[in-house]
Amino acid sequence: MSKLKIYNSYSREKEEFEPLVPGHVGMYVCGPTVSGESHLGHARPYITFDVVYRYLMHLGYKVRYVRNITDAGHFEEEGREAEDKISKKAQIERLEPMELVQKYTNLYHWAMEKFNNLPPSIEPTATGHIVEQIGMIEKLIDAGYAYVAGGSVYFDVKKYAENHDYGKLSGRIIDDLLETTRALEGQEEKKDKADFALWKEAPPEHIMRWKSPWGEGFPGWHIECSAMATKYLGAQFDIHGGGMDLQFPHHESEIAQSTICNHIAPVRYWMHNNMITINGKKMGKSYNNVIKLTEMFSGDHPMLEKAFSPMTIRFFILQTHYRSTVDFSNEALVASEKGLKRLMEAYEWLKQTTFDHQSAGTDTELDEKVVKLVSEFDDFINDDFNTAKVLANMFELVPVINSIKDKQIKADALSGQTLLLLQTQMKTYVEDILGLQAESAAEEDKLKGVMKVLIDLRKEARTKKDWATSDKIRNQLAEIGIQLKDDKDGNISWNMQ
RNA sequence: GGUACCGUGGCCGAGUGGCUAGGCAGAGCUCUGCAAAAGCUCCUACAGCAGUUCGAAUCUGCUCGGUACCUCCA
User: Fold this and answer.
1) DSSP letters along A436-448, please?
2) What is the distance between the alpha carbons of residues A268 and A198, in angstroms, rounded to a whole number?
3) Which of A450, A441, A446, A451 is CA-nearest to residue A495?
4) Which residue in A33, A154, A170, A291 has its CB near the most CB atoms, within 10 A?
5) Which pLDDT tens digit goes with each residue over A276-317?
6) Do A233 and A21 contact (CB within 8 A), yes or no?
7) How far apart are CA A238 and CA A17, in angstroms?
8) Can you give the pLDDT at residue A192?
9) Which domains does chain A have, with CATH numbers?
10) A63: part of which helix (H) or strand (E)?
């Protein structure tokens, strides 16, 4: 069997994956800033890395998956007037910052669950790790790579670049960064324009603030990930993931900070997912073209022709390789919705069907084809998580499965061994690795519709004193675990046992 | 301006130097009381130009077009 290869953004090559500690994998993924609602673009990294997480576990690794929550606001633009995104909005909405953070964190968790994303092993918050961040900044100052200016602390990029490769991850050239002509206000505190803040002095109106050796302030954006990754995964760990837009400056800066603090490059494999675009443009707050997840699920957005379920979106995302952009459109989503339905119907039948696993098989050619298609799942996922190709093979298997189901192909055409392999591989990949599941939400809606039909029929029967029919409906539903209750007001309610 | 990346059939998308994914849509057929579903078959593309090669959508160069990052951003 092939071995897992991961495209490492740092080396720009696919590399065979070898964990630092045999049997264990440490993975850090940049989580959301909970100052607002998650949108479609946010779905991509969490679904992408959920599959990575699931696959690593499938391979038998014990994985510690750390995904942070950024709940401490950051300055909007480095060097310009510092303002805390969260506190700013809190003032407008007259809410406590933590109330806002809680609200959006809950909403984010709700969406993750809808996507069937497994929860990470540790989900640390920035505000919960101020101490660690301050500790790291102190280390950087002691090492001579950070300097205090006013009540703020900056990282000395120029000095770092003298003996380290600053810019390698993001393909930046250090001299360009130092000589950037970009005119930003309030740069005078910094020695060089490329320097980034580790700690920012809080202006008086800033609500979120903490005491520090340099006065009251708040941590710079990049330091939280370095501090929390170090704390939970160690000085060096296996995989760091996130969106491509975080490569610079966020991840570049993380490397610099951690390297100085821990005397070792923090990450062995950098993975970056590409963006979701809409009409060819990146979906993002600054472009004013976001569709929030709640809007995706409800269809309540001018650009949406209908609602799309979380599973449709998950499938849509997995149909594209994670390093390519995916362009959102109603047509593409509808296509995914239909494709997913066909796949899942075939899969559900396959899953609940019992075959004769002793049969020798009569159609060698077909048997070999199925074995090949199913075995390639492993090769494709090992090739930098090519979920698109895995799904393509599944769709080649769908007609085979449906033909067996409709008896157009006899079940014994395939050997018992192959049928078993087909069943187990499909289950492993559909459910365990890709994390696809039947549309529970959609099914629930349908179930409600069905129950209404039955309840209406029963009401009619009761009105006509047709107790036989009335009782039949109630008793047979009870047999399958649905209890009907005649409420005092004449309505009929139901619940599942 | 700097640095990358991309340009695939009606739409979405995978991809390797030769064997030409897959989904959706469309057409025909089979099955079917009707319908749906399902199955079979068809539609065969790689922005343009030049080059390397026995052979390129895949490598090189140029042209055109697009995107991302360089500032918060998944």
Assistant:
1) ----HHHHHHHHH
2) 24
3) A451
4) A154
5) 999 889 998 888 899 999 999 999 999 999 999 999 999 999
6) no
7) 9
8) 86
9) 17-273 (3.40.50.620), 281-433 (1.10.730), 441-496 (no CATH)
10) strand A62-67
- pLDDT at residue A77, rounded to an integer: 30
Residue A151 CA to B71 C1' — how many Å?
Answer: 22
Q: Give the nucleotide nearest to A323 (CA→C1').
A: B5
SS3 at position A189 = coil
Strand B contact at CB of residue A187, distance < 7 A = no
Which residue is it, tokens 């790579």? A145
Contacts of residue A451, defined as CB under 8 A and 6 or more positions apart, other chains included, come to A482, A494
pLDDT in tens, A433-489: 999 998 765 566 677 778 888 888 888 888 888 888 888 888 888 877 787 777 666
Q: Which nucleotides of B are covered by protein (CB under 7 A)?
A: 2-4, 11-15, 21-25, 37-40, 66-74
A125-149: pLDDT as tens digits: 999 999 999 999 999 999 999 999 9
In tens, the pLDDT along A159-189 reads: 999 999 999 999 888 888 887 655 554 566 8
Q: Flag residues 286-305 of A with CB < 7 Å from strand B.
A: 286-287
Q: What pLDDT, on a 0 to 100 scale, did the predictor assign at position A171? A: 86
Q: Comparing C-alpha atoms, which of A451, A475, A471, A453 is closest to residue A462?
A: A471
Q: Check whether A46 has a pLDDT greater than 60.
A: yes
The pLDDT of residue A81 is 41
Distance A377 CA to B22 C1' (A): 14
Nearest C-alpha neighbor of A442 from the set A306, A309, A299: A309
Q: Which nucleotide is nearest to A12 (CA to C1')?
A: B4
Give the 3-state secondary structure of residue A271. Answer: strand
Residues 346-405 of A with CB under 7 A from strand B: 346, 386, 388-389, 391-392, 395-396, 398-399, 402-403, 405
Nearest to A135 by CA among A265, A257, A263: A257
Separation of A170 CA and B54 C1' (Å): 41
pLDDT given at position A475: 85
Per DSSP, helices labelled H in A59-156 are 85-93, 97-114, 130-142
- List phi, psi (to 5°) of A150: 65, -130
Q: Is the CB of A282 under 7 A from strand B?
A: yes
